[in-house]
TrEMBL record:
Range of residues in the leader sequence: 1-19
Residues binding FAD, per UniProt: M35, W72, A113, M114, D115, D175, E181, I266
GO MF annotation, one: metal ion binding
Amino-acid positions noted as binding Mg(2+) in the UniProt annotation, renumbered to this chain: T178, D292, T296
Protein name per its UniProtKB record: FAD:protein FMN transferase
């Protein structure tokens, strides 16, 4: 799956300002690569032998998720559906049906801004399996790609203990890159629960899930990065407290074309990369999958329309907006409940 460079979430696996007299951490950090990005799992009181076994099990689980969701692997379950021109119900796994169901719901609640059928536009602008274009696509190319998109052309069917996807456009292309990291983070959390582990911090790319306390018997702390190239620039710190968190940003994954800065975030309504002043959206939700879906849709909407949706849906959201040479932050009351004092 294509790597989406987000507005970074820094996993602070120890306290930001620890004291010398604190006991040493009992944490173990496992890590690897998946979906074109990286994964990290922080655990407490795990011996070396079990850590090795867990690493193997985690990588196997993530490899299976990639075979399910990837648009870069022609034999993935999703790409088999995409390649088919059949308009009949297409049998899929419960997992794939659930991911699409959540995506369609959030898509509707963001007024179509979170659109998993936007793949033709993503590819047209060079952020999918196709190569980067030599020139900015012309209106005819954009309109042709838009004609192959739209959430109304896709539905999920649950029938007789079997799930199906069905499209009414033969060349509809579903791209789940925007939610894949969130789903994978939730999936790893479920794996750890099955292993009897109840204290962990999981991250896949920009999506995280936590449970319990860290190795110093304190809350897991997650820092939202400032919109800068400095990896250690912290904007705010939260305790996600058993929830999922995900960040989408427009200021890192881009390229220059014909003298213009091209963001990887595509507006399904215009068919073009976003050009508003919202540079980062962080969402805390019951699951990382939901957070991953919401942050994309809100990022597309821009600061004013996103705030309207956040207030209507009562979401836990932190936004960073560029105003001239400065960055201004805004958070919903629901997000403020998760906020921590960096000094404590």
């Amino acid at each position: 799956m294509k790597k989406l460079l987000r507005a970074g979430l820094l996993c602070l696996l120890a306290m930001l300002s620890g004291c010398d007299n604190e006991p040493p951490s009992r944490q173990t950090v496992l890590a690897g690569k998946t979906m074109g990005t990286t994964w990290r799992v922080s655990l407490v009181d795990i011996d070396e032998a079990r850590a090795k076994t867990l690493t193997q099990n985690i990588q196997a689980r993530l490899d299976a998720d990639d075979r399910l969701l990837s648009t870069w692997k022609p034999d993935s379950a999703l790409m088999r559906f995409n390649r088919s021109t059949s308009l009949a119900p297409w049998p899929v796994s419960p997992a794939l049906a659930d991911i699409v169901t959540v995506s369609l719901r959030v898509g509707a609640e963001t007024r179509g801004a979170m659109d998993i059928t936007v793949g033709p536009l993503v590819n047209l602008w060079g952020f999918g399996p196709d190569k980067q274009p030599l020139h900015v696509p012309d209106p005819q190319q954009i309109n042709a790609a838009k004609a192959r998109t739209g959430l109304q052309h896709l539905r999920v069917i649950n029938e007789a203990q079997q799930q199906y996807l069905q499209k009414d456009l033969p060349d509809l292309f579903v791209d789940l890159s925007t939610v894949g990291e969130g789903y994978a983070a939730d999936h790893l959390a479920r794996l750890l629960e099955q292993e009897g582990i109840s204290r962990y911090l999981v991250s896949v790319g920009g999506a995280l899930v936590s449970r319990g306390l860290n190795g110093k018997d304190r809350a897991w702390r997650v820092a939202i990065q400032k919109p800068t190239d400095r990896e250690n620039a912290v904007q705010a710190v939260v305790d996600i407290n058993g929830h999922g968190i995900s960040t989408s940003g427009s200021y890192r994954n881009y390229y220059e074309l014909d003298g213009k800065r091209i963001s990887h975030v595509i507006d399904p309504q215009t068919g073009r990369p976003i050009d508003h002043k919202l540079v980062s959206v962080t969402v805390i939700s019951p699951t990382a999958l939901e957070a991953d879906a919401w942050d994309t849709g809100l990022m597309v909407l821009g600061p004013q329309r996103a705030r309207e949706v956040v207030e209507q849906q009562k979401l836990a959201v932190y936004m960073i907006v560029r105003e001239g040479d400065k960055f201004v932050s805004w958070m919903s009351p629901q997000f403020a409940a998760f906020l921590l004092d960096e000094q404590n």
